[in-house]
Amino acid sequence: MTELKLGVVEYINCWPVHYGFDYDEIDIDAKIVAGPPAELNEMFLRGEVDITPMSSIEYARNFDDCYILPDLAIASDGSVGSLFLFSEVQIEDFTSKTVALPEDSRSTVALLKILLERYYQVNVDYITCEQDLDYMLEVADAALLIGDPALNEYIEHQNSDLNITDLGAAWKNLTGKKMVYAIWVIRKEFADQHSELVAKVSNKLLKSKYLGLNQVELLAKRAKEEIDIPEEISLKYFKSLCYDFDEDYQKGVMKYFADAYELSLIDKWPKLHIWSEENGRS
Fold it and tell me: What does pTM read for this prediction?
């Protein structure tokens, strides 16, 4: 029997989607492969995992090799709560400054470059390093943090003198669009060969998501216990995220792709290949 390998991002923003199999309410029928987003993206492209949440920008760069699983995304309509730019100066004064970027982010890095270059119209230099805010602000004028480290640093510095910009809110304010940070994808070759298995796992992931969205209070308590994020912050965070991929979010991600294309962050204009059981893709 074919074994499907499922990539699982370890950040809490994926907890609602994983809820069903994390709490043994759903048998996902897959081998779980856990890791940070960039690492799972690379494993997917090497064929080492079959389904994974993929950063939107990586989908745009590899859209001919995969399908999007329906109704699964990490997105927001405004503030996202875990993608922050920290700086001691206002963004409008960034010209000729240096911005430190995290090593394990792609969609958010592309989003920041789009915001700075296209909308704020500032030219900056970039360096890449580990997510350590103190170190990043020693070697650069601003620091981009994502995921759990961003949440923790926001909690610590929200009342400090640092300027803190939520990238989801900035995107919404500047474009009027919703933002999609990641989508669940499946390797095209695997889906074409194992459509019944893909349908089963896709449906179970959706069921797991709906179960998780009804248990965000429990997940907020878990965040407090496991990574010491206050329950009220985690609960607000979970409620700020959207895990669907409806028409409005598809329009938002296509706007993001259009801006990325104009800035040469992607080489080709991508299409949204959404998998369906009936015809393999739409």
Answer: 0.93
